[in-house]
Amino acid sequence: MNQEYIKPNAWSIIEEGWNPGLVKSSESLFSIGNGAMGQRANFEEQYSGETFQGSYVAGVYYPDKTRVGWWKNGYPEYFAKVLNAPNFIGIDVFIDGEPLDLHKVDKVSDYSRELNMKEGWYERTFIAHFSIDKAVKVVARRFLCLEVDELGVINYQVTAVKGNMKIEFQPYLDAGITNEDSNWDDAFWEIEELISEDHQAFIRSRTNKTNFHVCTFMQSELVQNGEHLQYANHLEQNNKVIRHTAAIELEENETVTLRKYAGYCSSLNHQQYELFDAARKVLTHATLTGYDVLLQGQIEQWAQIWAMADITIDGDLKAQQGIRFNIFQLNQTYLGKDARLNIGPKGFTGEKYGGSTYWDTEAYCIPFYMATKDQQVARNLLKYRYEQLDKAIENAEKLGFSNGAALYPMVTMNGEESHNEWEITFEEIHRNGAMVFAIYNYVRYTGDFSYVPEMGLEVMIAIARFWHQRATFSQKANKYMILGVTGPNEYENNVNNNWYTNYLAKWCINQALENLDKVKDGYDDDYKRIIGLTHLSGSETASWREVADQMYEPIDEELGIYLQQDGFLDKEIIPVEELDSKHRPINQKWSWDRILRSCYIKQADVLQGFYFFEDHFTKQELEKHFDFYEPLTVHESSLSPCVHSIQAAKLDRMDQAYEFYLRTSRLDLDDYNKEVEEGCHITSMAGTWMSIVEGFGGLKIVDDKPSFETKLPEQWDGFSFKINFRNQILHVQVSKSGTEVITYGTEPVDVIINGKEITLQPQLINA
Amino acid sequence: MNQEYIKPNAWSIIEEGWNPGLVKSSESLFSIGNGAMGQRANFEEQYSGETFQGSYVAGVYYPDKTRVGWWKNGYPEYFAKVLNAPNFIGIDVFIDGEPLDLHKVDKVSDYSRELNMKEGWYERTFIAHFSIDKAVKVVARRFLCLEVDELGVINYQVTAVKGNMKIEFQPYLDAGITNEDSNWDDAFWEIEELISEDHQAFIRSRTNKTNFHVCTFMQSELVQNGEHLQYANHLEQNNKVIRHTAAIELEENETVTLRKYAGYCSSLNHQQYELFDAARKVLTHATLTGYDVLLQGQIEQWAQIWAMADITIDGDLKAQQGIRFNIFQLNQTYLGKDARLNIGPKGFTGEKYGGSTYWDTEAYCIPFYMATKDQQVARNLLKYRYEQLDKAIENAEKLGFSNGAALYPMVTMNGEESHNEWEITFEEIHRNGAMVFAIYNYVRYTGDFSYVPEMGLEVMIAIARFWHQRATFSQKANKYMILGVTGPNEYENNVNNNWYTNYLAKWCINQALENLDKVKDGYDDDYKRIIGLTHLSGSETASWREVADQMYEPIDEELGIYLQQDGFLDKEIIPVEELDSKHRPINQKWSWDRILRSCYIKQADVLQGFYFFEDHFTKQELEKHFDFYEPLTVHESSLSPCVHSIQAAKLDRMDQAYEFYLRTSRLDLDDYNKEVEEGCHITSMAGTWMSIVEGFGGLKIVDDKPSFETKLPEQWDGFSFKINFRNQILHVQVSKSGTEVITYGTEPVDVIINGKEITLQPQLINA
């Protein structure tokens, strides 16, 4: 059974009632982030129950020395870990000297959490009963500013609901944090300097090895009835923690609020010696602006995001809540302002998986960012990989490739590979194809070819070189083969001729050749620069072409099916639905060898190819392959349901499409995979967006025109979404009575709506 | 280049000259053991240079919690580690208060080591120069008694070669030892009690988790000119170490000797509360018997071993030294007295690989022990697996098998799997076949069928059940297949239809069926007991038979070659000799994925099948397969050269056979694999023995008769070996003039010599 404690609500994630067993789950679900930093929804005050602490600064990581059972050549020396950063949210509270700790008080009542996605804040409310005569009500709201993304704000309001009492607040900074997933119990951080002055405190820490410097800072104020109260300053400072204090006597029914302004300034954005000054500036800005105005700014910023990114679903509150949660989390994780950053699979909601960048970005996230942001954002994501091309070449060299062949890493922070399962790290090479697909997809969608001569072609060349070298000529078959790979279906390892990989490899080479021609024809300077740089010769491209032309594709002629890999039909083919539920999920119930020799598929593999290259295949072919592979798919990857939802919609299997949609959109809210405690599945959330826009909305680009083939699940009264298509905003509204598309842009747009081509004239935004 | 510092000598391993860079290598090569315990050749006195400490007690292990990079279902929780045991050899020496430490003294001269294999002792000699005026000569000899296998003896003799001086000896016991390969830095041992009384000391320690109790003990005596001197007793005792002391003033050219009797008594052989008493008894025996008599006993014991196990090679000193080193080490490691013990891959020479038992025992070691010991020894080795059948069934259950199917572990101490690479642990299942082959081989060689009804048949049934369940019916091929395995060639992982595995599986099922019939016919009680125990039904055996009858064998019809696995010919087939030497060894130079997709073979795989089942194939078939596979083989496993040497000899390729022989017999002495520092390759030493007896001697059993097809490498003048064939001793002597076989047994023996059948009449041993 999935969990069902989150209350359905169109704009908020709501938990009601105190259940300590849900604390870690809610810490993930109520996480907040602003693209530059983020936190799990840990309590501000002391909590001695089970909790998983997590605060993260985007781009600040630690290369943790690899630890494996048995070393194999080629393993990367380090695994780049998302770092748990110093904690700035802490506010311990003492009531008449007794700590406020929900794990220890007599009783907790009226407990609730709300993550207000519309306005971008998180609030927790509860009444803590210390005895029959003494109780306090707490309303703690916090947000991480979008506008000043080094700033977090906490408004911690306490009311004496029973009895008179002395309340002492101890806001603190704690740099003595660790990672749960440290390999060797290394200290990831060194604390360099602690400063406590007036009402401000600063801790400058440095990451070991990577030498990121981060200044964590805070300033607090005590407010009652709109008045700022005086309060004591420094309480305690050891070598890891700075603790301030502010105490006040409250009579029954009186309220007092501690406001804490806090955050991080890091050496990513400042000179090391300027960190304290930068932090002081943020605090000055914050205190002068004040809580109410900052909150107002936050609401406005989120309103701007929603104006473009929102999707409405009518008549299905859980579906509505699901899609907004996905869109909200994506925007909390990555806003596209900084080309050095990327979209971590857990965003700012947990430390699991480490690394920030997977092929998820190229395969799943780019469409969302292309369609809901300025096209510069998607360009930044592409540029991120271009910047790491040298590292990708080094990575390939470590595995024995040469001549500028590039293998992009499976997981990375800085371009270096940092994953260490050989069957994935060394073999799941299809990721290289996603890099090229993303460029192709970007150009197709935005019409911005300039990226190719400027940066993209170099990436394509390096990847074509990789595929050329990685292919093996089989004398036997008189074909080029790709041996020893893991496809997107990670429940197969070291297989020969994964169809998806082979198909993608061939396509990548052809893309490189085509784009070489285009750049040669239209961008002479760039062409010369690139040829000078890569020493690409005609004989080299001829040998690429040979590999592409003679690439082997595993196929079963009898069934008319591309085979996931050589020998796939030697397996026992038993549909998932015939599997006793006691065996599910197989990744928890079966040993690895049993999974491997089974026919079960973790996530779209052949069908991933049909998704990427929809226009290469007929609907009948899609149907045949969907009918063959989907029944064998266990969807035990978060990336699986979205692709299948899109394809089910294309095949008019609306019930199935709807079911997959719910699964992808409420994966974390309903905890399908029983692991939300560790964090949310951020990158698959972009897949959720695709399942509406590309699935039910049927968006594809046909001859430079957006085409919509809309399908309305019968559970819905209607749905709507917007896309930015080449700087024109299209608003697509689907209801039982039909589909309407409006453009709010500046120019007429040619679109295809359910097969009919029309030219839309721009409307006023508030029309 | 291989190392060449060991002096060729027929009966001894000799090192001459002081080279600190060789200390760790020599610590492995000069290791001593007596089947019950063993030690690396660490120095008795303090040594601050690079060293790898190792003392081991057979059967005493620690289950170290598994550590992997990424957990996969089915991994065993623990890895059973060979334990570094308390050190009893330590004797610190001070010359006028200055420590004798070869890493620190002014100069070391006249340094040599000798491992006298004939007599079973190890001696180190050197002169240590403290200054121009002060030098001592040390002659330190030690041995581990074969007769009283809890006892070790050290004779540490010091002569003042320059100057008068005060010499202080500090014999000690040190229980504060650790393992280099600990996963989590656990303490493997708890020290429970330390006793120091008179000239004796005892430390009782307990292994954590496994609760083995070991009493390490010592007693020392100071001897000069045959007289026992008085000396002080207790010097120091902390919670880990007991240190005694004995000092004497020496004038130039005077000599003094410290004799230390020491050893282990363990709870494997004694009640825990009797350990101290047992240790006292050993010490009483030792001191009453005295050094000279103990040494004489040792020489006699080894003489008995050599009388049966020796192989002579005439005209090739290095080859002679090699084979004796192999035979010596095998006898140091395992003497077959105790069915709870087995043959660790490093014996008592290092801690690498952990575990004591691999399929090496069944595939490589049993023939040696069958032929050079009483047949009870081989029976004990078989019984070891029988005793662990329940664990093998549990092991299979953990991987999802049922109905009493057994999967024997890849590595074990107590029957539980303790290896954790999925591609080996879960997939290298051919090991199960070696268990059955060993039973078959034992019965064929010894004629003792009684083992089958008593124990072996149960093992065969459980293994047949495993293969039956592990096979997959391919609708496509209308055959049973075995998917997702690793064959003996560990440079392939997760392949389908490894020919060796499929062939062995089919053979195992047929063996079980045949032996069921034999037991049914001749051993009614056993048959009933076994059927009652296993609930084996006619329909079950029928379904086994179906799998065996329809087992798929990958073959290339065109080449007439059994394929190592499906798809093998899709690889680029380039002989090893065309590979640039900079790529060798590939396991150090290539990334794992590159190794996997290459055609290169680590050790005999298809050819292992041809070795086991020689009589199933013609010489022409062997030749064809040898010519195809050997050129693709890199022999990067210690188990590889011996099989190839045997097959080359069978094919009359004597140069190749000789080269492989040298490689297997001097693998450690010449350090072919650049890793002898970590210990010697004990189990492959039995392969060396096979390469002479089965290769050059051409021994096989034909219709219950030993048959010899002898071949003399041209580098040799002759060679000879003995075998115990069904309690008759055969002495085979091959020279340039021909082959002579003599029996020293009690009965006439029918033998086949180079195709000619003769009946040998027994001769007197000293004939």
Number of helices of chain A: 20
Low-confidence stretches of chain A: none
Helical amount of chain A: 25-40%
CATH superfamily caption of the domain at 37-301 in chain A:
Glycoside hydrolase, family 65, N-terminal domain
Shape call of chain A: globular
Structural class of chain A, by secondary structure, is alpha+beta
Q: Which CATH top level class of the domain at 37-301 in chain A fits?
A: Mainly Beta
Query: Span from first to last CA of chain A?
Result: 45 Å
The whole-angstrom Rg of chain A is 27 Å
Beta-strand content bin of chain A: 25-35%
Number of strands of chain A: 33
Please state the second-level CATH architecture of the domain at 37-301 in chain A: Distorted Sandwich
Major interchain interface with per-chain residue totals: A-B, 48 and 48 residues
Task: Calculate the mean pLDDT score of chain A and round it.
Answer: 95
Question: What is the CATH topology of the domain at 37-301 in chain A?
Answer: Beta-galactosidase, Chain A, domain 5
Major β-sheet of chain A, in short? 10 strands, antiparallel
Oligomer, anyone? Answer: homodimer
Please outline the helices and strands.
Two copies of one chain form a homodimer.
Chain A lengths: L11 E5 L6 H7 L2 E2 L3 E3 L15 E3 L3 E5 L12 E5 L8 E5 L2 E2 L7 E10 L4 E11 L2 E11 L6 E12 L2 E10 L14 E9 L2 E8 L5 E12 L2 E3 L4 E4 L3 E4 L1 E5 L4 E12 L8 H15 L1 H19 L1 E4 L2 H17 L26 H13 L2 H13 L1 H10 L23 H4 L5 H16 L4 H20 L1 E3 L4 E3 L17 H24 L1 H11 L3 H12 L5 E2 L4 E2 L23 H4 L2 H6 L8 H7 L6 H11 L10 H11 L3 H12 L16 H15 L3 E3 L2 E4 L9 E8 L2 E8 L2 E6 L5 E5 L2 E5 L7
Parallel strand pairs in A: 28-32
Antiparallel strand pairs in A: 1-9, 2-3, 3-4, 5-6, 7-8, 7-13, 9-10, 10-11, 11-12, 12-21, 13-19, 13-20, 14-15, 15-16, 16-17, 16-21, 18-19, 22-29, 23-24, 25-26, 27-28, 29-30, 30-31, 32-33
Helix pairs in contact in A: 4-20, 5-6, 5-9, 5-20, 6-9, 6-10, 9-10, 9-11, 10-11, 10-12, 10-13, 11-12, 11-13, 11-16, 18-19, 18-20, 19-20
Keywords (chains A, B): Hydrolase
Protein name (chains A, B): Family 65 glycosyl hydrolase
Organism (chains A, B): Nonlabens arenilitoris
